[in-house]
Amino acid sequence: MTYAVEVVITNKKQAKDPEGETIHRYLILKQGIDSIESVRSGKYLLFKVKARSPEEAVEVVRAVCEKYRIYNPTVHDIEVRLRAQSSDY
Amino acid sequence: MHRVAIIKFPGTNCDHDVAWALKAVDGLEPHVVWYEDFELGGWDAIVVPGGFSYGDYLRAGAIAARTKVMEKVAEAVEGGLPVLGICNGFQILVESGLLPGALLGNESGSFICRWVRLRVERPKGPWLLLLEDGQELSMPIAHAEGRYFIDEETYASELSHAPLIRYAEGWNPNGSLYDIAGVASRDGLVLGLMPHPERASERIITPRGHSPDGRLIFQSLAVALRRGW
Q1: CATH number at residue B19
Q2: Which residues of A touch B (CB under 8 A)?
Q3: Sequence spans of domains, chain A
Q4: What is the pLDDT of residues B57-114, one digit of tens each?
Q5: Interhelix angle B88-96/B68-78, nearest 10 degrees
Q6: Chain B positions in Cβ-Cβ contact with residue A18 (cut-off 8 Å)
Q7: B169-214 pLDDT, tens per residue?
Q8: What is the per-residue DSSP string for B97-117?
Q9: In chain B, how many domains are there?
């Protein structure tokens, strides 16, 4: 089975995110939408993984992210999750 | 003559500038080495120069940092060899874990290319041998991802005792925390900095109001290799 596993990398809270701040300030607050309190930008990666289960697919991707520093733990938070259970992505 | 390896990755573009600047210093013999051809042994120092290794994909320096050659560079550091990372080379050293911290996109979101003033703190080791504590230097920067980040604890435990190069007051171009332009290992053996010393090595390409202070770093290396540090 092939699974689509997505990885979202964002700056840690302590690290400023000028891109997110600019989107928030100039696209959202400028339109008068004040219910949106903040925006964080990030990087998105989509992995197609052959695995026996969705859990295994997510685990494989998580391990690769750690081992080869796909994200930099000094400054990034990471989310790894299943997107779909097919190879359509 | 002391042999200095300048490691070239796909996308490195400052290798020959560094070689040119090193060649102008008595006692240094630079060699540009393709990253796959680098072997340990026979080298007196290593420079990882600037550029856009692997197109800055994923993050500047992230892909070069996982190559075999960087394992060899780490081994060289263990063996006491001086290592300098300039700009993308600094990013590679940080991503390899040879220096602490991380380099994020400039606060302005733009690529910035301009001369800046720097201040040296606690100079130590082969690259800063000829510099004094508090000495001001001029060098140009040219980067999009130069905003230095480090958490408070690591700053306190590792950097507050190590040699540092900061942007002088009012010169921080990119939002770097603690105005950091360059950091070194505590013994100064490994130095990484965003400014380009090789582009500040000749009077003729130095703008008015600045001086070609980058060459002090290369001259320091030559003296250090001759006399020890």
Answers
A1: 3.40.50.880
A2: 11, 14-16, 18-19, 22, 43, 68-70, 72, 74-75
A3: 2-84
A4: 999 999 999 999 999 999 999 999 999 999 999 999 999 999 999 999 999 999 999 9
A5: 80
A6: 105, 107-109, 175
A7: 999 999 999 999 999 999 999 999 999 999 999 999 999 999 999 9
A8: TSSSSEEE--TTSS-EEEEEE
A9: 1
Residue B42 pLDDT exceeds 90 = yes
Strand-pairing partners, residue B120, are: B165
Least Cα distance to B87 among B170, B163, B18 occurs for B18
Helix segments in chain B, DSSP class H? 15-23, 68-78, 88-96, 152-154, 215-227
- Region A46-66: mean pLDDT is 96
Q: Quick check: B84 and B28 in contact, CB under 8 A?
A: no
Which class for A33: exposed (0-12), middle (13-18), buried (19 or more C-beta within 10 A)?
exposed
Q: Which CATH number fits domain A2-84: 3.30.1280.10, 3.60.110.10, 3.30.470.20, 1.25.40.390?
A: 3.30.1280.10
Which of A11, A15, A70 lies closest to B58 in CB terms?
A70
Interface test with A, best of B104, B154, B176 (most A CBs within 10 A): B104
List pLDDT tens digits, range B130-167: 999 999 999 999 999 999 999 999 999 999 999 999 99
pLDDT at A87 over 70: no
Cα–Cα distance between B166 and B177 in angstroms, integer? 10
Domain that holds residue B96: 2-227
Nearest Cα to A70, choosing from A49, A50, A48, A43?
A43
Contact A18 B105 (CB under 8 A): yes
- Dihedral, CA of residue B37, residue B29, residue B55 and residue B196, to nearest 10: 160
Do B150 and A68 count as a contact with CB atoms less than 8 A apart?
no
Q: Is the pLDDT of residue A66 over 70?
A: yes
Complex ipTM value: 0.84
Collect all residues with Cβ–Cβ distance below 8 Å to B125 and sequence separation of at least 6: B82, B163, B184, B185, B187, B188, B189, B191, B224, B229
